[in-house]
Structure formats: structure tokens, C-alpha cells
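Both lines are retained for reference:
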Amino acid sequence: MQPHHFSWEFVGFTIRKEREMQMTTKASVQPVTKEVVDDKSKDLTTSGDSIRRRFLEFYASRGHKILPSASLVPDDPTVLLTIAGMLQFKPVFLGKVPRQVARATTAQRCIRTNDVENVGRTARHHTFFEMLGNFSFGDYFKKEAIRWAWELTTIEFGLPADRLWVSVYEDDDEAFAIWHHQVGVPVERIQRMGEDDNFWSSGPTGPCGPCSEIYYDFHPERGCTDTDLGDDTRFIEFYNLVFMQYNKKDDGSLEPLKQKNIDTGLGLERMARILQKVPNNYETDLIYPIIEKASKLANVSYFLANDQTKTQLKIIGDHLRAIVYLISDGVVPSNIGRGYVVRRLIRRAVRTGRLLGIKGDGRGNPEGAFLPEIAEKVIELSSQIHSDVKSRESRIIEELKREELRFVQTLERGEKLLEQMLADVVLKARENRILPCLAGRDAFLLYDTYGFPVEITMEVAEERGVKIDMNGFEVEMEHQKRQSQAAHNTVKLSVENDEEITDIISDTEFLGYETLAARAVVEGLLVNGKSVLQVSEGSDVEVLLNRTPFYAESGGQIGDNGLICTESGKKQKSVVEIKDVQKSPGNIFVHKGTIKEGVIEVGTEVNAAVDAKLRQRAKVHHTATHLLQAALKKVIGKETSQAGSLVAFDRLRFDFNFHRPLMEKELMEIEGLINGWIGDATLLQTKVMPLTEAKEAGAIAMFGEKYGEQVRVVEVPGVSMELCGGTHVSSTSEIRGFRIITEQGIASGIRRIEAVAGDAFIEYVNARDNHMRHLCSTLKVKAEEVTTRVETLLDELRVVRNEVSAAHAKAAVYKASMIASNAFPVGSSKKIRVLVECMDDTDADSLKSAAEYLIAALQDPAAVILGSSPGEGKVSLLAAFTPGVVDLGLQAGKFIGPIAKLCGGGGGGRPNFAQAGGRKPENLSNALAKAREDLVSIISEKTR
């Protein structure tokens, strides 16, 4: 294939000619298109940004409200990531939330990774893509949706009508008739398809309905006989119209929606490919600049490269878009949930880059990272997609660099081991004349020890013609799960200087649900990561016990505090103050503390006692967290879900998915519900049951958490039921009271509530009461009169400030009258009075009053530049020009900006009046000198 170089400039002529050809097509399509041909001036540019803008403007002109893209992290708990443009409107489509607008249009960022193996191999598959959509919420339906889709496609974008095919759901006679009789698409270019192809849903549950799709035909010369719209070499489906009529329930049944809706999706990358006349989506201006950056780092030419290299470059171009936008929306690489999606993409991109020959950062630093280099190009292209990406650039770059370098450390060892494994497998297969297959235990070793996602192992093996024993891999995964639940583990604890100690240590038996004190045996001691047999007074230590009443941090709840003591008769030998408890891999509790007295030794029997007051605080806050989640679901909707939590002794913190700040009345309603449940004194119920049974009962699982076959269910009857291993009160009455302290956003689509309950609630209320008492004493009023008294004081303060401001302005005007005589004439043909002065510490408002006085006193034509330093680290600047000066072409706003930069600031304004500020008063004198010099020079030049 010849190297393909595209140009955006030549496309306008081509589309114009195609549009002229379209006007000569059969009359049956004329009714839809003719009426809008003459009333619009078309923008014929075909860049991705232009296509996006033209789509949105097309529907905005037809009564649609342009709404922003939702986050890639959805509010919907039934899906992991935002996979479609309609997802943010799902509650509206279901009738759970009243519509705010009747029609909307969006350019939605989407992520789909279900067919990631096809990325780069086909012309159209992506993990990240933009879906342009128009939506109707009970307003218009099929007729308008089809008509406008055709107008957009054939008129706005100028695609030839004879190159377009349409599919409809097999039973949708109405859509078929509209396409044929009203739009004029020939019967032979309309295909009926079954449920798999033309019945759309957003996921396992939710809005759904029949759909109709528009295809572009790259090879119309092949005719209409035995045509397969799924033939990627000939067709590309670029526009999907969903006629949303039903809600799919958990059992798969369909129920009619309260209102009929329209949900459409036009793939931006696909339309760009068609209009830009390139052979695949990757060579459009949306992705190719990223590929070009990767090509430079790899020192290869994309257009001269072989197919394998092109595929690898496409993978990087695609994955970097997905990675950057996921991290921007708050997804952090991890081993669970969304975090695993971004980690898998990062690791796949890193390995692909290494296959391309990119070393280090690709710029000569072998210890550097190359993904941040390419990410900079993605961020550069992001301005029209998501403006916030640029502001988050440093966080995105740092996260990418950290994750890439972390993976590279194990990648090299893992790659060598995998290559050796595959070579051995291939050799053995040849000797035995069998198909090569890598054992599941070997794939698991790479996954467990070297951090290789099994998907990458499968890809590498596939490149060598080797299959993976996935059944064996799953067996190993299950075996590991059983091991972690067994009575004993072989525990490897990482210690200083990369040493490792391996000991057979019993899983810690947790007694903390039943008791706060217990006898136990010290099975291990660690100091600074090293195993020791004995630790003395004053040392920090990590204590491993065979059994413990201490709760180890998990599920958001922090670890217990308390004491571990040894005794000999009545004389106390040692005391360890425990300040934290963590779990090591497996189920071993690590008690972290300080030796306050005596000596502790391995093998010693000890008394382990939890601080009962602090444990009660944790129990109260944990149960209150469950009540908070239940209240949130009642007040703002069941769709909200937990996104993180902290259960501490002094407060609780709860993160949840929601798209806006909560209103004051909503917060009050939430508090009211929770305090009502507290007053009900409901007894909690705790059960251990099979995971499937718990889910069937309606227990809420924390997203991303891993659960065993048996789970602990904590229920507040009639209020909440959650899978939880934390500690809880016996009755809601123990909580005593609940108060929300703050509610704020912490990431796109993520809100955070901090609250107090129990003793912390009492302390908070008492502190607030003390503040109020002090305020009442100071103001000498009753509590109920404080608001009125403060409002009166504020009014009085405003009056005094106005009087002070007026006095300052009067003083500034007096100063101005004293310096007016310093004005000097400039210009040969036209004398213009110029005044540039420093007015000491005059504030910005008073500076304005002084300038107004001077302009009036000096009369037209005159130019005044004033500066002052009203406070430490502050500069005020002002430029005022009369009409005679402005007529010369001078503009105050443009003039004062560069002067302000000299003082570390900026500003601007109107042609005749502008103000600016700065942070470097020490530069004010030089800045005014520069202003005087420039003003004289410009005026002299213009008045010759």
C-alpha cells in the first residue's frame, strides 16, 4: 500500500461536488433535504473538532440543549465505566428523575474494553471514543429522529445518499416505512435484522428498545445482491438511532417506559474517517497526531512501516487516549474495578512500546518513562473534548510515570521468564508432535509474582502460536483463594534491603466480635522490617499474635488501639502501646506500637486488650456510615453508590457517586432520617451466609471489594443490609446522635460527606454550644438574637467602610489635584497632555477616583497612568485615555497589560479605561518609567 498522506484542505471541494451530485438523486429523498439546502452556510472543514461542533450546532438549531459530557466514572452502579452517551440520562429515561429539558445533545466520552484485543487490528475498534448524540425525553420520536439523522448525514456532512444503507429491527415496520416512504431510501438498501444487531440496551438492565443504524458504503460498485452489512471491508456503521420504549428488568422482562424516548449515537471517529477519506479511524486528526508522537519516539515511519508495527502504533494511540481521560476523571491504577482497567491499558501500552523498540523515555534517558511523553500530545488535543484535562496535566503525567516505572521493574524479569517458558513449550510440542500450550500454573506465576495481566500473557503467547491453559489458570486462582482462607499460610514479608523472611505463621484468629481482651502468644516480632526475637523499652515494634481481639484496618475502618502486656506474678514485665493494626497478605494481623515498659519476646504469652472507648467510637461511626448510605439512597436516589469511606474514632467519611452538590434541605433531610433511625433503637442483626444468598437478600456489596464464598451481613432491619466485616453497635440507640460537618466534591462525579456520631457528636455539639455562649456574651444578646445582632453589625460595618472609602477617594482626589501640574505635553502636530505618577499606598478604588478627576482636569486629549502599592505584596495600576488619545489607536486595556507584567501581574479593560494588578511592589518604579517611555514614544510616532 502506498504511503497515505491526508490533507484537510482538499476535502471541501470533494464534499461540495458530492453535494451537487446528491441534488440530482431521485426525487423521493428531496422532501427531507431540499428545504434546508438554501438556508444555511455550511462549514466544510472536516477536522474532528469541526465535526463535533457541527453536530452539536445542528441539533441545537432544532431545539436541543447542548449538555456537557458526563464523567467516565458513571453514577450508575450497574456499569463499571461510561459506555454510552445515554448513560447520564438513564434516570430520566426510567422516569425516576424529572427531565430538565425536552431535548438534549452531547459529545460523550466513552470507554469500552470488552474487545480490547481488536484495537489496532481493525479499522474501527477503540477503547476510548466519542459518541455524539441527540436525545428526546418524551418529546419527538421515530419520524423526527430519522428525518434529522438523514439531514445531518446528507446535508450537513454531505454524504452521498446512494452510499448510505439502513438497518431496522426485524419487527419495526414503522421505522422501515419512514425510511422508505418518507426519506426515500430504496428497499434494497434497507435490511431487517434480529435482536442481536438491532435491539439496543445500555447493559444487563435499564432502558432499551429497537434501533435503526446508518451505514456508509465504501464500495457501492459491489451492488445490492447478498449484501452483508457486517462486512468491515465494505461498510462502516456510523449512526445508531435507538427508539427507547422499554425498561429491561433484572429477570430480563420488558416493561414499557412511561414516555417514549430517543437516544442516538454517532461515532465521531467513524465520521471523521469517512469525511477525511482515510482508510481507518486511526489516521484521522483525532488519533494520528498521537501515533506520530509514538512513531518519533520509536524512530519509525508509520506510513512506511509494516502491518505489525502499524498495529502496535495504533494500540498506543488508542490506549493513551483512554488512559489520560480515565486518570483525569479520577481513576487511579489498581488491581480492582476501574483501577484495573486503567492499569491493564497502561501495562499493555508499555509492553507494546518496548516491542516497538522504545527505550526509557525515548529521548535518551534509559531510566525514564515514555508514556508521559505521548500523554502530553493527548492532553494537547483535549481542549475541545474535556477542558479540565489540561488543568490536571501534572497529576496525569505523574501517575503515568509512577505506574510505568513500577511495571518496568518486573516486566523485564517477567518477559525473560515468559520467553523461556514459551521456548520450552514450543520445543516440547515439536518433540511430541502436539499443539504448544502454556500450563495454567506458569501463567499464574507470571500474574501473581511478576504482575503480568493474564491478557498480556495470552497476547504474547498468541504471537508465538501458543495457547494458554486457562482452566489451569483458574484452578490456580481458586487454590490461592482457598490458601488465604486456610488455617496456615506461608507468609513472605518484605523487609529492609530487599531481604525476605519466610515463616510458617498461623492465620491470626480474630476474637474482636465477641471480646475486647484475650490471652495470646507472640509468634513474631519485627523492628524496621527485620525479624527479631526480643525488643526492649523505647523501640517501635510490630507484633504478630496467634489470636487477637484487635480489629485490623479494613473496609474503611481503622485499626484498634490498646495495650499488649506480659506479666510475671503480680509484677508487670512489659507494656506495648498499640496505635495501629494492619493485615498482611493472607490473614495475619500486624500490631504496630511502641514498647513503653520492659522487654517483649517471641513465644511469650501476653494479655491483648483493646481500648474499649475508642472501639465504641469506631463501632458508632461504622454503623452510622451504613445509615448514611441508606439515607442518601432515599433522598438523592438509589443510583448513588459508595466510592470509598473512612471510619475513624473522631469522625466518619463517606464518598459517593453524585453529579452535583447536595442542597441544604437534602442534607437536613438526611440528618433527620438518620437521627430518626437512631431514636428507633433498632437492634442490629449480623449473619454469616453464602455470597449468592446475601446478594439475593438485597445486601449491598462495596464495589471493587473481593468477597469469599461465605460473607458477613450486617443488617439494620427495615433500613439497610450490607456485606461488612467491620465492628458495629448492638442497637442504633448507641449512636446517640448524628451531624454532617461538610459535604464537598473531591473528583468528577464523586462527592464526600464528613460527619460525627456518638461521643464525637456530643463533643462537636458542646464545642459549638461553647462558641455560641462566648458569642452571646461578647454581643450581650440571647442566642436567638445573635443572627439579628450580627446582621445589624454587618450593616453598620458596611456604612463605616463606605465612609472610609469615600474619605480615601477624597484624599486621592486631593493628591491628584496636587500632581496635575506634573502633566507634560507630547506630540508635534497635536499636543497631548501626559501624566505618569506613583500615588504611594492609594487603594485601587481610590486610584480610579483620582484618574477620573485628572482626566476631567487635563481635558481632551490627555493620557493618565497611575500606580500604587496599597499593601504588602500588592500593586495597583491604572490607565485612562481621553477620546482624542483613543482615536490615535491607543487602547488603555492593551497598554496596561504589559506594564503590569513587569510587576508580576496582569490586567486589562476598555480602550479608554483599564486597571491591572501585580505582586511585586519593588518593580513599580521601573514599571511606571517604562510606561512613561512607551507612552511618549507611541504618541510621538502617531502625531508626526
